[in-house]
Specification:
This protein is mainly α and 258 residues long. The chain is 73% helix and 0% strand. The chain is built from 15 helices and no strands. The radius of gyration is 19 Å and the shape is globular.
Length: 258
């Protein structure tokens, strides 16, 4: 009992020479998981291998899959995801997932990178200072989310929560989304991956679907992300994500009949 030939081929490309102990203790599960995750699911969509691995790493942080994250991080480095890109995925998780959940993943990332011979710290990717973070963060927020939407968020915020809007502009966008190392289209895919993986973030995920559309990610790309995350986040959260995609990015036929 073993995964099929195509699944083994894809698995070996990601994990050369790696044999999971689960293949010995739980061969039935590994057979149909690998056939699904490393063959059937890979037939869908248009994501390149590097992007697929990056959104999967982001989702694994969100679902707290530390052991699987370590394994998939090795695969990501094998297929050419750079150490800078890996670190940017982890850093970007902080404002969306929270440092309480990211802390162990940051240490795990450093351990894996060091084992691969990467010298730390990496070259810095920050483009702002404490004096410019608010201005530049607001500009990037308006570019991604839309100026009208951001201005409305500020205008409609009650006085006692207006500070959160400033935090979003200065910290979430100014400290994180202004960084180099990843482009905005990739960063929005990562954000979407984290939000749907966490669950309970449907309003935010819906907002970031619109943001993905604003930066050039179409329905097929977002469906590809949701599909490639399915083996790692499960059906309920994947189906919730697809429902949101249908709401924000309906198909052509749905547009014509609405």
């Amino acid at each position: 009992m073993a995964p099929n030939e195509q699944a083994r081929k894809h698995h070996d490309e990601l994990f050369p020479g790696y044999v999971s102990t689960l293949a010995v203790t739980d061969p039935e599960l590994i057979e149909y998981f690998d056939n699904f995750a490393f063959d059937e699911v890979l037939r869908y969509g248009d994501l390149d291998t590097r992007t697929r691995l990056m959104v999967q790493l982001a989702a694994l942080i969100a679902v707290q899959g530390l052991g699987e994250y370590r394994v998939m991080l090795g695969a990501a480095l094998t297929v050419g995801v750079t150490p800078v890109e890996v670190k940017e995925i982890v850093y970007q998780a902080v404002p969306y997932v929270g440092m309480g959940k990211v802390f162990d993943f940051l240490h795990a990332t450093n351990e894996v990178l060091t084992a691969y011979g990467v010298e730390l710290p990496l070259e810095g990717q920050s483009t702002t200072t404490p004096e410019t973070r608010m201005e530049h963060g607001l500009a990037v927020q308006q570019e991604i989310v839309g100026a009208d939407v951001v201005n409305a968020m500020y205008a409609n915020a009650p006085a006692d929560t207006a500070h959160i809007q400033r935090y979003l502009s200065g910290n979430c966008f100014g400290d994180h989304l202004t960084r180099t190392g990843l482009d905005l289209r990739t960063r929005e895919l990562l954000t979407f991956a984290m939000l749907i993986a966490m669950g309970g973030c449907e309003p935010q995920a819906k907002g970031h679907l619109a943001a993905n559309r604003n930066v050039g990610n179409d329905r097929q790309t977002l469906l590809s992300v949701a599909t490639q995350l399915l083996p790692f986040i499960g059906y309920p959260r994947t189906l919730n994500a697809i429902r949101l995609i249908d709401d924000v990015m309906p198909t052509i036929s749905e547009k014509e009949t609405s």
